[in-house]
């Protein structure tokens, strides 16, 4: 009896320890390695929109009162093209999520009136960052939170997708989730 009790608690302790050690490693996917090689530069980073049933959300997609300025490994700049003028305020809010990202010259940000194609796969693609900051396209009408979509695509200047399912404002890793859920 005592032996089975020790065995049971030993298994529980091992499982808790494994979750404590592996959980953060699997969700800290912002630093997923260098994804800026030639093959990735040609395809881009697609971000899709998916529909989930109420109660299935695993993130809080609503923006927090003050958008965080998460650290980045280098400084970058962007400019908003005429196609994005109606969405300029949301794009600037998304850019504010990252330190070292300023408006001016740099990455052109354009907006489309439909889902984006030619970004490296996926369906219902609402955002794409080609070549880690060479060009960004956004389908702002395809998402509820345009600032979050912009923040996500700007994040691809430095980072790949994280292990989160749905993008949200909770952390840099959550912003970098591969899907906008709604």
Q: What's the arrangement of strands in the largest beta sheet?
A: 3-2-4-6-5-1-7
Q: Strand pairing plus helix content: what structural class?
A: alpha/beta
Shape: globular
By DSSP (H or I, 4+ residues per run), the number of helices equals 5
Order of helices and strands: HHEEHEEEEHHE
Q: What is the terminal-to-terminal distance?
A: 51 Å
Major beta sheet summary: 7 strands, mixed
Question: What proportion strand?
Answer: 15-25%
Oligomer: single chain
Radius of gyration: 19 Å
The counted number of beta strands is 7
Low-confidence stretches: 4-42, 52-65
Helix fraction, binned, reads 25-40%
Mean pLDDT: 75
Produce the secondary structure layout.
Layout: H1 2-27, H2 38-43, E1 45-50, E2 76-80, H3 88-95, E3 101-103, E4 107-111, E5 125-130, E6 135-138, H4 146-155, H5 172-175, E7 179-181
Parallel strand pairs: 1-7, 2-3, 2-4, 4-6
Antiparallel strand pairs: 1-5, 5-6
Helix pairs in contact: 3-4
């Amino acid at each position: 009896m005592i032996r089975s009790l020790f065995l049971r608690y030993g298994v529980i302790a091992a499982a808790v320890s494994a979750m404590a050690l592996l959980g953060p490693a699997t969700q800290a996917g912002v630093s997923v390695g260098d994804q800026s090689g030639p093959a990735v530069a040609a395809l881009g980073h697609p971000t899709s929109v998916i529909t989930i049933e109420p109660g299935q959300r695993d993130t809080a997609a609503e923006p927090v009162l003050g958008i965080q300025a998460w650290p980045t490994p280098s400084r970058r700049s962007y400019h908003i093209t005429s196609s994005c003028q109606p969405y300029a305020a949301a794009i600037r809010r998304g850019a504010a999520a990252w330190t070292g990202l300023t408006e001016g010259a740099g990455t052109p940000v354009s907006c489309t009136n439909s889902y984006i194609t030619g970004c490296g796969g996926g369906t219902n693609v609402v955002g794409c960052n080609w070549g880690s900051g060479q060009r960004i396209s956004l389908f702002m009408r395809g998402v509820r939170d345009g600032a979050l979509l912009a923040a996500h695509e700007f994040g691809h200047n430095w980072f790949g997708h994280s292990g989160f399912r749905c993008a949200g404002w909770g952390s840099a890793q959550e912003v970098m989730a591969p899907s906008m859920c709604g």
